[in-house]
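Hi W., the adenosine-5'-triphosphate complex you wanted:
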Amino acid sequence: MDNKIKIHLLVNEIAGNGNAKKAFKKITSLLIKENIDFSFQKSNYAGELINLAKEYANRKHSDNEVLLVIGGDGSLNEVLNGIKRSTCPDTPISYLPSGTGNDFGRASGLTNKPEKLLDNLKNNLTPKRADCGSFKFPGHPQNTYYFANNFGIGFDAYVVQRSNKAKLKKFLNAIKSGKLIYAFNVINALKNQDTFSVDIQSKGKSFHYDDAYFVTTTNHPYFGGGIPILPEANIYSRKLDTVVVEKPNLRKFIKLFLHLFKDGSHINDPQFHYVEAEKIHVKTQRPEFAQVDGEVIPKRPFGVNFAVKHFNLLI
Ligand SMILES: Nc1ncnc2c1ncn2[C@@H]1O[C@H](COP(=O)(O)OP(=O)(O)OP(=O)(O)O)[C@@H](O)[C@H]1O
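Structure:
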């Protein structure tokens, strides 16, 4: 199959503070060098990759054609949504993680090296059936949305919301310290994020928590750019996990964090809860921010029906 593949690149050049742009340059020069047929489309505005991916999947393709996404988790999310809403929702996705957080790349063990990715594609175009999350809002059952990583309400969404809008972000990105903004905002969230009540229904059981700090429904272990919130989760489990953490005090927060990075034993803490299932319903009463694959949904009370779905991933 060597040299016979054809690649269509979907690129978000602003992802990863310039990483995606560099990765695009690198891969196109390799493709030219190796005489591999390729075409590309760049994202001109937030959300455009949904349409570009949908249009790609709606067209007919031969088996040797590959759709390759270059960007971060947000870009992958857009492409996933475009593909799943197309007339050919099984169109395989190849992905070169080149964003800031890259949680899906981390969770799936994908390479971020263009040379390695090209070698993989030249040798094997058999996709793996990976999980993704889907969600619907009751009252709007006709609209289904998808996520590759997670849907979080509370603490993680607060951090993402603050980080995405902070003026400081531009400056810190410019001095290549973009991750510092997350550290600042974690401390900020600890001070300002209140607890809220959450109800979860799954597998015929109901759970109620009065003092949730965050509730995150996840497809794999990571959120927030590498925080292994649920080490046992994986993208081939055919299940989603909803994690609820009740508000710890600062001492407890630090202890939980240390356990989280040391051996994953934070999951045994009495303030840490999770349910694993194919379908999970999450309901909150108070307006809270949510984040889906790192993109913010404005504050509102949420009632969300989650279900595990699948997509074809080229590894
Ligand atoms: N031309 C564009 N101008 C402005 N924003 C864009 C453009 N194209 C895409 N976007 C938006 O860029 C945002 C960030 O992209 P992405 O999430 O891929 O990168 P990242 O945030 O650096 O990485 P990660 O999510 O892995 O941390 C997404 O919300 C996407 O909708």
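The chain has a mean pLDDT of 91.

W.
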